[in-house]
Structures are given as C-alpha cells and as structure tokens.
Request: fold
Amino acid sequence: MICRYQDYDIESFEAGRSLWHARIRRADNSPLVINGYAFPALEVGFAWDDPEAAIADAKHHIDRFGHRWDAPQEAHQGGHQDAPQQVHAA
Reply:
C-alpha cells in the first residue's frame, strides 16, 4: 500500500506476519538528508497490526521531523545511500 502525504510517498510493508512498518521517500525521489547525510528512504515505526496504522505512524513522523530533513543539496558527499535506515522517535 502506497500513499502520498505532503511531498512524501509512504509505503506500508509487512516485515513479518501481521507486523506492519512504513517506508518514507520523497515524492521526487531525491534523498532525505539528516544531519548532512543522504538516505534514499527511511523505515519507521513499530510492528503495527495493519498497514493503515503503519501509514498513520509515518505521517506522524513526517509532521514531527519532516522539517529537519534538509534539502538534498546539503548532503555530505559519501553519505549513507545503500539501504533504508530506521528512525525512531525519541
């Protein structure tokens, strides 16, 4: 299940039987930049019971942290671009 929220695409996926997570990407496919390091996508959340709950959690992360995900041109060279990273709210 994929949905668009603000300028992001959110994809829910089942990481195990009835263990739903979400992956956030920029809709324009540019990387998310956190503390100067570029990431193609972020995997967020807990093991939700259904895909809708995982997407709702991802929307909350976008609302809370999206303003911190800098513009792609601010990324350090050689940033972590190989695999999605998990980010957990503090």
Q: What stands out?
A: Residues 8 and 27 are 5 Å apart (CA to CA). Confidence is low (pLDDT under 50) at residues 79-83.
